[in-house]
């Protein structure tokens, strides 16, 4: 019987190290890329951090600024509420360390187009 531990090595029931096994890391949310996505959604919907604070009933606007600076990410409850506000799936707001989480081809195309559009508009 083997047990996999976090350093990537297997140990058997006696505690002896066995062969090294490559363990792929599990998917995690990329805070910086998710922050960019949230900021982009706010721009598209003409919303300011203060508007998000009011909508979610947050005590201070600093929470929203921490989200768009990539310091923190919204809780599941806040992600759900924001998805309703922005009319997108929660998965369409999150960016991970791998491929885009969203399975919606339509949203992928729209997000790519809007990202280019926003970059061109900001450059002008």
Textual characterization of the structure:
The protein is mainly alpha-helical and 124 residues long. 48% of the residues lie in helices and 9% in strands. A three-stranded antiparallel beta sheet has the order 1-2-3, with no helix packed on it. Strand 1 and strand 2 form a beta hairpin. Helix 2 crosses helix 3. The longest helix has 19 residues, at 105-123. The chain starts with a strand and ends with a helix. Residues 1-5 have low confidence and may be disordered.
Task: Give a brief description.
This protein has 124 residues and is mostly helical. The protein is built from five helices and three strands, in the order E-E-E-H-H-H-H-H. It has a three-stranded antiparallel sheet with strand order 1-2-3, with no helix packed on it.
Short descriptors:
disordered N terminus, mainly alpha, 124 residues, 3-stranded antiparallel beta sheet
List strands and helices in order, with pairings.
Blueprint: E1 2-4, E2 9-12, E3 17-20, H1 31-44, H2 49-56, H3 62-68, H4 76-86, H5 105-123
Antiparallel strand pairs: 1-2, 2-3
